[in-house]
Design goal:
Layout: H1 2-20, H2 31-48, H3 51-61, H4 63-66, H5 72-92, H6 98-102, H7 114-118, H8 120-135, H9 140-158, H10 160-188, H11 195-249, H12 254-262, H13 273-283
């Protein structure tokens, strides 16, 4: 939602400011310049990226406009899932959670928390690491090391899309200059034309530089930053799960383990102890 608002604000302020200063809006409409810049940027992106990065980046780019920020309820759901599984494991034995973590889509535990079920990366991390506990005894520090490896690999993979988009943003000002130079070349062929014609042609050429810089700093660069924040947000969710599981593996009772996980939540999304306690009691009804 805010990304769409941002796009509108950028366009209104830039184009509106130009119009308020008496600039003719028609001169900004240069589809050929946009074709040169946009086409070259897409081509360079294809040259620089393997197929998996290309398709992954296109899919991720849509999340700039569709993804929602993790709320307090999101983290309450995460804490609720791991608490329920840890409580079952302590009460009925670790084997009792096997069916839930093996097939979470059909699990009565996970279906109570749809926000967790929809987040594939988070869901996989929770299930895989409970399976580690199922596999046998493991020292807490070893378990933490295993999760750190998993998180580092996940973070590296998820960072590919924002990095690829950022490379495109970095290239756009230069490609705008390419379009402008081509426009100047065409203008030189009109050197015998009246000043009015030359002025219009030079102005059209300079629009290429304008478009490259605007696309880079007004749209594509911010998109990359937005995706970077999303990657960090997912990583913070995994940190919460890790804190809870390490506490549980260290012998903490489920309530203390989930309290350790709660303290790993950053910023205003962190629920209070009372909110967590209320959510867990409500979930047990």
């Amino acid at each position: 939602m805010f990304a769409i608002i941002g796009v509108i604000v950028v366009l209104v302020c830039v184009i509106g400011g130009f119009a308020l200063e008496g600039g003719p809006l028609g001169v900004l409409v240069q589809p050929v310049e946009l074709l040169i810049i946009g086409g070259a940027a897409v081509g360079a992106f294809f040259i620089a990226s393997p197929k998996s990065i290309i398709f992954g980046t296109m899919k991720k780019a849509l999340k700039v406009f569709t993804a929602s920020e993790a709320s307090k309820q999101t983290f309450l759901d995460i804490l609720g899932v791991i608490y329920t599984l840890m409580n079952m494991a302590r009460r009925d034995g670790i084997v009792s959670i096997e069916s839930h973590v093996s097939k979470p889509d059909g699990s009565a535990v996970f279906t109570r928390f749809p926000s967790v079920l929809k987040n594939h990366e988070l869901l996989e991390f929770i299930c895989d690491n409970f399976k580690v506990l199922l596999a046998g005894n493991i020292e807490p520090h070893q378990f933490e090391a295993v999760m750190d490896i998993d998180m580092a690999a996940s973070h590296k993979h998820e960072s590919n899309a924002p990095a690829a988009i950022n490379k495109v943003a970095d290239s756009l000002p230069g490609l705008g200059i390419v379009a402008a130079v081509l426009g100047i070349v065409l203008t030189m062929a009109k050197i015998n034309e009246p000043p009015e014609v030359l002025g219009h042609s030079i102005g059209a050429a300079l629009v290429g530089t304008f478009l490259g810089i605007l696309l880079s700093y007004g749209f594509v660069g911010p998109m990359s930053q937005n995706l970077e924040y999303q990657v960090k947000e997912t990583h913070s969710m995994l940190e919460v799960v890790k804190a809870g599981l390490v506490g549980f593996a260290s012998g903490f009772p489920p309530m203390l383990a989930v309290e350790a996980a709660r303290r790993a939540v950053c910023g205003p999304a962190r629920p209070t102890f009372e909110e967590l306690e209320g959510a867990l009691k409500g979930g047990q009804k």
